[in-house]
Amino acid sequence: MTQPTTIRRVPGPRLSEHLRTALTLAATGVPVLPLRQGKVPFGNCHRCARNACGGRLNMKSAGPCRCPGVCHAWAAATTDPAVLTSPAWKTAWRQAVSVAYHPGGAGLTIVDLDNTDAITWARETLPATRTVETTRGEHWIYRGTMTSHNAVRPGVDIKSTMAYARYLGPGTGTMTALPDMVRALTVKAPAPARPAPHAVTVPTRAGDGRCPHRTPAYLERGIAMAEQRITAASSAIHATVYRTFLAVLSRHGRCGCLTDTHVARLFTAAQAKGETARHCADAWTNARTTLGL
User: Fold this and answer.
1) How far apart are CA 250 and CA 211, in angstroms?
2) Could you read off the pLDDT of 131-168 as tens digits, one per residue?
3) Which helix (H) or strand (E) holds 27?
């Protein structure tokens, strides 16, 4: 679907200006939603507050949300005029400061250029397409969808699936197909291969040379507790992983207890929480350096 080139006023003196615009966009297949002050969506409904429903924002489909009100940000975007003019939505439209739409739901991708440097880069690099002026820069709108990403380069965001953008007018120019060079902006170069975790072999403490922690049950319990600490973390994941690695190394790093298997278990737990292999390796190295290992 494409955005309309002109806005035709929807009859009805009781409709707000934003609702009129929304209905016109919806009629062309563009899913819309209202934005409140600060250019942000309206909060979730009572039943979905604080992610009580499981978080429809995490879904991979386009919506629309099944709640009666304007719920779940981009997933609330709809083309259904009956929903847009329902009592709950009318209340939101009266409070709205602007209209937003879900680009991916309309089969579109927006290259959001936030400053003059980003605009200059786009003009020198990307094929021309429909352009809409924004407060700080421009939206370049292409036909086709992709995964949304922020900060793909300085001043450049990609808004398509699972995202919303303000409607700022029809823009100028002819909309063209989404080029591969835009898709390529979100592809990260593969990180250098990291050697497999290796056993930590450092000098033992002064004494008879025997490891005081070689009791299998003791070591197993320590690693299991470390895995659990990482897995249970709900925030500050980077810091939790580092502190956990530090605790394990402070206990077992000088006696040679740790093996490839133990280290791999810790790294696996961290990566399951979203840490990259590189972050794990860096945290492990930093912990060893802190302890002088």
Assistant:
1) 14
2) 999 999 999 999 999 999 999 999 999 999 989 999 99
3) helix 17-27
For 165-231, the three-class secondary structure string (H helix, E strand, C coil) is: EECCCCCECCCEECCHHHHHHHCCCCCCCCCCCCCCCCCCCCCCCCCCCCCHHHHHHHHHHHHHHHH
pLDDT digits (tens, 9 = 90+) for 241-281: 888 888 888 777 777 677 778 888 888 888 888 878 777 88
Distance CA 161, CA 155 (A): 19
What radius of gyration do the chain's Cα atoms show? 26
15-67 pLDDT, tens digit each? 789 999 999 999 999 999 999 988 899 988 887 877 677 655 445 444 556 78
Phi first, then psi: what are they for 129, rounded to 5°?
-155, -170
